[in-house]
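Changelog-linked ticket: DGJ example.
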Amino acid sequence: MSTIIHLNTRHTSYIMSVLPTGHLQNLYYGRRIRPLKDAAVLTQPNAVPYGSMVAYQKEYPTIGLDDQCLEYSALGKGDYREPAIELTAANGCMVADFKYVCHKTYKGRRGIPKLPSALGTEQNCETTEVILRDEAIGMDLTLFYCVYPEYDVITRFVCAKNNSGQKITLRRLMSAQLDLFDSNYSFVTFDGTWASERTMHSRRLCEGIFVNDSKLGVSSARHNPFVMLTADGCTEETGRCYGMNLVYSGNHSEICEVTFNHKTRLLTGINPSSFAWLLAPGEEFYTPEAVFTYSEEGLNGLSHNLHGFVNNHIVRGEWQNRERPIVINNWEATSFSFTQGKLLSIAKEAADMGIELFVLDDGWFGRRNDDTSSLGDWHVNEKKLPSGLKGLAEKMNALGLDFGLWVEPEMVNEDSDLYRAHPDWAIKAPNRTPSEGRNQFILDLTRKEICDYLTETLSKVFSSANITYIKWDMNRNFSDIYSPTLPPERQGEFFHRYVLGLYGVLETLTQRFPKILFESCASGGNRFDLGMLCYMPQTWASDNTDAQCRIAIQEGTSYGYPISTMGAHVSASPCFATLRNTPIETRFNVAAFGCFGYELDLSKLFEFDKKAIKEQVAYYKAHRRVIQFGRFYRLRGGFNPDKRIWLCVSPDKREAVAALFQETAAVGRGNELLRLTGLDDHLDYTVTGRRQYVNLKTLGDLVNNVLPVEIRGDGVIHTVLSSHYMLAMCDEVFEAGGDLLNGYGIKLKHQFSGTGYNDNVKIFGDYSSRMYELKARE
Ligand code: DGJ
């Protein structure tokens, strides 16, 4: 065995070699190790055959493929695990068997035709290409490994080339396979549904096959393509873990198989379900790109690798590493029913509060007064907006606000001029009544003429006014899939062709409008993935704006995606999704860990909320660089592990912002340690609690304990008082060394516990929270 391929990042190594049978095998993926003189110690001792094993080749009777760690497996020659490739040759034979031919390494990387891929230059990335061949079929596979040393990331994709002179049908072509020699892991996935996206679930692996996938047509809220393998004992701060994601926005599948021999196979790629791609002679097929990372610094370490990678190699263009504006979005304030006057009244308040961008959501076009009509008719409704988009944008600009717009281009309502003109543009299966979702159909983006129409129509809209931001929505899952323009043997290409069509439209529009900040959205976070992030630097994380729910959603999202990618807004209380009441300060403290904004009727607020919001906006502006692009940590409360702490630390560690979140108050548990991490042990910090206010309403009748006159807890005077009086949360200012904060933490002021109130008591009830600023002292 002479061929050893040893890839290195700053802290990790990935090592492959070739089995005597000619198959490419994985020897190692883990912490960085020095080059090997020979790979004897990493080579599996195939000393004896066993039981029912199929020996690949007479000359090597002890080698059965089923128990090897392989790099890219096929079915048919004795490996019975989930394969990376499945195909049908022209003669109908489904056996495939790919062996190593050669490899080469070069600086930099290439893109992937028609698919988005990570950025890389000769300075920050190196590629190894390995060619595998199946002589019998006449097909080559090129495995691409792009190594990003700085972020401990290795990406992978595959090109299949048909050299056979006959048609081949690919029924599965995964982006990557990772075979590990052991199986002491938990498989961690991020699952959910509408308004409960990316909720973390972890299960200890045992023998069997576990699938995390989407068949919805989008990457989906059901199962995000980002998954992790965590070694036993791994925590947020310590331990070994692997992360894997896919640069793709359609049906995906992450398959994890553990065999009785305690080997683990992990696969990621386009979902083989409903997939079949006909490869004509000479044609190539490229998979989407998979992203791998490994960390020995726990889940926070893993997230840091991915956050850096996404911010610097996935997000691109004008908004890469650029601070995002503070938004006011009218959706939760007005839904479809607004006038220009109403929008301007919200905008005036917003401008007054220091908000920077007004986003006009759904309902501005056609006859769209509810969700039953007009998708597809992208011309302004002049009844609602007599000055048109141009005039409205000018008025917003005159107030000092930028102007942004919502669109949902991939859809069409039956009740629309577009549908009436082109009923065949909507996706429908033959001889069936198509099913609707939110009263709408999906346009067939496998068809070039429809993609071209969209590109041109949207270009007109985007250039019709001074628009600096676009929210690109997508509000239903796929059904009835079929395209009349594809021949029967190509219908299995539908889902992937749709995604390629969408990417083509996005590529052109983002090139044409490089200054626009795009935010993608799909009924909230139904398409939160690295593919969309290649075009749109941020994604609306969820329609659920309840702060308590958002803690789980944003925290779940943060394992694989940086804060700078998550749209997060403060909405009204009680929240429409849960009917829960949450203090305005907590709504801010949660939404502030994201691309921040408001989504409520600012023209209807009590003075208390207005004043609080004004201070919130100023605070966010002062700290957004470190929040959006600093190093983000997830921690648990010191004494009370049910409390969560989020922390963002600047690259030079001289500045940080932390927040402590409490779910329910408990008497006797009023003491709390603020234990942080990632700060400089040698620096001294001033820790200052954000100036936050408590609404007197929270206190009800208890206000009479401090007031000179008696008022009714639920009376008019109480309401007027609570609307105007800003009761400040007690001051908290501490001086502490980084070594203390990183190790033990500092003791915060005691929470109100029913037995008295003074300057040293913090009013902190259910769903309370506080932000803390950390500044290094000179
Ligand atoms: C779903 C989105 O997630 C919401 O934010 C909003 O834009 C609505 N669509 C509008 O229809």
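Closing comment: Example verified and attached. The CA atoms of residues 366 and 449 lie 22 Å apart. The first helix runs from residue 298 to 314.
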